[in-house]
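Internal ticket #5521
Category: modeling
Description: The requester needs a full-assembly model to guide mutagenesis choices. All entity lines are attached below as received. Residue total reported by intake: 422.
Assigned to: D.W.
Attached entities:
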Amino acid sequence: MAKIKAIRGMNDILPEQTPVWQYLEKTVKEVVSIYGYNEIRMPIVEQTNLFKRSIGEVTDIVEKEMYTFEDRNGESLTLRPEGTASCVRAAEEHGLLFNQMQRFWYQGPMFRYERPQKGRYRQFHQIGVETFGMSGSDIDAEIILLSARLWERLGLLDCVTLQLNSLGSNEARANYKDALVAYLSERKSQLDEDSLKRLETNPLRILDSKNPDTQALLNDAPVLSDYLDEESQSHFSELTSILDEAGIAYEINPRLVRGLDYYCKTVFEWVTDKLGAQGTVCAGGRYDGLVKQLGGRETPAVGFAMGVERLILLLETLDLIPNEVRQTFDLYLAAESKGLQSKVILVAERVREHCPGIRVRVHCGGLKNIKQKAEQTGAPIVLLIKESDNHELCGSIWHNNEPIFDLSESEILSSVVECHNA
Ligand code: ATP
Ligand code: MG
């Protein structure tokens, strides 16, 4: 019978890999907590309309990437393709937005029907932050500084570049859209099929076309920054001056528009050239109109999401994972002879009580070549439990297949503590 396999683009994260995920997650938790952000956990499934109304009907996500299905009662549901819409829905539903300032973070799987390739999967994971109730550029700066501090802790700061742009107010963007459409409509013969379609549905997305001819055509096109309203302009210059003072380098990319409809004013991406085509590791921006669009009151908001798989790929590519991350236990405990095996389990319990936090792995099963087997586990310390000539329990610490020192029963615990602390 044919074996059942995982769904294409949906990956198992195997025990060999999970320590790296845990390392990244732990570092993120440390960083968000020193900025005073609170975790929020949303369901993985939502009403389809939530995403249609927030992300936008004519975006890649809603048009072709959503996992949508009918519930048993006929309701249309969707596996979340991103976290922002759910976060807004949850916060609004529980009255966390009106007249309040909130800083949230979340993590979890997202689902998009895309063509699987390196750095692009159908189930992938994001860690995101969303803030509500703050309209100034200071909070835009804060979330960028938070992400920069995360890169610094991970050793990635030199390998990622911050790209910034302002999309302006809805009105400014609409004016710009008209100018861009007018310019491109006169040059339709030079546009590829994709851009021709976008010209009708979502013209700003043409700006991030990967086609070199389209990019060349855009060199003489109207630029968004010339259409920015005064408020968006000063918001943007305040943001860049905070970043300048904080010593955070950035590039202004006038063609950065982002794929979702709900952004306004600040948008940004952290990109790397080390991962090929899938180079954006973190992306976000301001979405002041979204809460109202989803039925709430006008609430300024700004946030970002990072792609966990891409960050892990980057850490691995650059060999930035500390060695101890993959070390998942501290002590390997084994019996020298079969008769002592039941004792070893009990010695391990005493070690765990005596030395809180120590990670002990006990050897269960055959004892043939036990010393080599123990060493092969990569354990920093191997403790072999033996019996002395007068039948007292004792032990010896092994390293590189050599006994380092012998211990009487009473010495076992104290020396384990000593080794662990060393
Ligand atoms: P891309 O242009 O690469 O498709 P996007 O604009 O669709 O990205 P966002 O919706 O902004 O991406 O999501 C934020 C981050 O989540 C991305 O920068 C990326 O790191 C990650 N991400 C998005 N889609 C995927 C995917 N299919 N597989 C893995 N990571 C993804
Ligand atoms: Mg995408």
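Resolution: model delivered.
Comment from assignee: The longest helix spans residues 137-154.
Ticket closed.
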